[in-house]
Amino acid sequence: MSSRFDGAEPIIVARAPAGYGKTVAMAQWASTTATSGVWVRIRDREMESAEFVELLADEMRAAGLLEDGNPLRLASEAMAGGADPWQLLRRGLRGVPGPLALAVDGIDGLRRSTQLALVDAVRDLSTLELRATARKRTVLDEPALALDMELATLEAPDLALTAEEAARIMAVDPHSDLVNEVMAHGGAPLFAKLLATSLGEAAQPALSGRTLPDLVDSFIRLQLESSPVDEPFLRFVTATSIAEAMDPDLAARLLRIATRRPAGEAKADASEERASARALLDRAEAEGLGLWSPDATGAATFTYTPLIREAFERRLRAEQPREVPELVGAVARWELRAGHPFSALRQAVEFHDWTFASRVVRMHWNDLLRNHGPQLRELFRGTPLSVLRTHPFLTMLLALEYNRTGRSRLRALEYFALARYAARKQRASASRADRAVLRAIETASLRVSGRFDAALGPAVEGYETLLAMSPSDRDDLGRTEPTLLNQYGTTFVYAGLDEEALAAFSRSTAVGEARGLTGGLQGLALSAGTLAIAGDGPEARALLEQASRLEWPDGWLTGYMGSFIPLAEAMLALEAFDADAAERHLRSLDPHRETIEHWPLLAHADALVSLLRGEVDQARFRLQAEITSQNRRRAVAPETLARLGRTSSLIELAAGNPHAAEKALGKRQSAGGAVGRARISLVRDRPEEALRLLLAAERHPARARPSSRRIAEDLALRAGAMALLGNEERAVTATRAAFEFLRERRQGMALAMVPPKALDAVFSLVERAGLAVHDAHLSRGRVPGIIASTRPKSAFTPRELALIETLPRTRTNTELAQALSISLNTVKTQLRGLYRKLGVGTRAEALAALAAMGFTSADPDDIPARLEEPFE
């Protein structure tokens, strides 16, 4: 039968019920074909695309088919960062020289969408051929596929035995009634083997109307009740049928549990048990009950033929129900060690072993999310709330699953809150490893909810717990240690604790390098971005150059996992006033903007790009659109708005509206806010006030030293204020300090954000005093001042200027309409537009803003509040 897989068609599938030898035939073909290839067995139902591609990549890597640089070498990490599985597979397969055969045993176990994508890949790649087995109809049975590709299907009649083959298996005459019975049952090879083994010709009359499952069950009953010689073997098959795959160690343990052997005796005879189990599995293969096959690591695992396993498992569950939970638990633990976390998790959930389920999640949450998202929702459907309240790892897994698509944000926030509650309840009794993970859960869930201040406490405690852990404690973390460090460090970034953040990211990178964990690459990306955001250009550039020499999982550099790399590149480009380069780097992250938690940082960078180009309205529109979009996702918290207030303040200053800029900063006092207010004072030509605000900021209590960026902005504004005040000696000292710091930190934006009059005064001083600028891009002709003067008439339309001129002389909208000879509705429409530009909501606020901008000297306090008319 194996020769039937040798056709020239790109796709050949053998589809038949269990018992027709599909897998054996394909295995025989695979062992003799000259084409290079890999064999994958589909064990889970409804396997998702990401899991299938990862399984295929693992097998190809184990087979030595992936050369250095092939994106499939880091397929798991690439997909964790958001890479499309099928684009990744195509790129990887194109890098494999020569034709490649892919043998998929049980293709009907793939989700239908995965089957379709696999067919598309075969269609697109002329060097790829697919051979598969299936027990039921699949996408490969769709007639329309034959319209644009060649495909062959081997069905039960094609795989059935001939009368001669059946007679040879049973060692009887081809014209025997027993052969006729086999042929009447479709010529199934397993049918013939079972007849030859257990029934004999004398039992033939009793077979009429029997199905193959009936016969398998009959085979088991007869063998268990017949000669004692076979009883140990059949007891062994019964005990081990609970496992979809196994090695000799697992098989021996299952037999030990099923036969209730004492643990001490079992330990003493472990090597003998292992050897005995191996021999029994070899016998099972020889009798056609299953197959040995190498897994991705090269170790051999045994899998029963599905029909045989199902029949024996039915018997096991019926006869030994008390042992089944322990047997399933043993299989789950083996699956976890073998690298099959979802299978382990599924079996733990089946018997409500929530402690073990939590252990699986703690060690493999990233793999589970990447490969089994929809399956996780279904797996935990109906899980009692009491379980989720006491098992935070499970609740956090569900929160992350619902959060990552962006379409179930409200449900995700509910799970995040429940995870925090569960984590707090469990902390006291948890191990150190568990406490470290629980605190990471708390800080991450608070942070993605926008509660940055509340997220700091769990991050600090978790980080300290991790640092105090022994090497054995860290072993309990599995592959998650770099991820935990990255989570703590990210919270430190948003808390303004850059030094602590960089220390955490550096540890993540070191652990990743030492243990071969790609989570350390994310630590490197976070370090580079943090340095660039903080204004430490030289160090950021050095890390970016280091990153460019490393092998990154496909898609990481433009996805969430490496998002701080393009952000760092964008920030460094902005410091060189290269808006186009910054824009290119930022746009590479657009596919992830809906769900990425770093959207406030990206929105700030977007605003700076627009301001450098002089597109003030575009900057305002982009920022508001981003806030509106994120607000729909419940991702905007007051703390986030306060941070973006400084961005909005810059935009309003660029629009020439210091009143709106001051309002955008809000009433919250901070060192960063003081710098923003000092900038507004310079716009209003109040240098003494600006200096007082900057001096007051020095005395403002802070939990961390100021960043290089804030120092640069402070120094540049001081230089501007000093230059305006005319004290030449002090101004020269301040200006020299500012330019030296900007040169050393490779910054430019701090100078570009100095108000125009103060900036002109600084450069005049540079020329008079003969100060060295050092860097060409910091020269007078290269610095693109982005702050407007206080009378930006070009920012208003002629109709708005007429409205501005008339507004102080009228007291009602009706008077305003009469003075302008327009309708009342038109006045209301034009006022809305003007108020929006000014960033105000009332006539009094509008007059105050216009007075601050120098358009009018009217005192808004002269206008009674009772004359404030609504628009509608």
Automatic annotation (TrEMBL):
Signal peptide range: none
Domain of life: Bacteria
One Pfam family it belongs to: GerE
Residues covered by the HTH luxR-type domain: 789-854
A GO MF label: DNA binding
GO biological process, one term: regulation of DNA-templated transcription
UniProt name for this protein: HTH luxR-type domain-containing protein
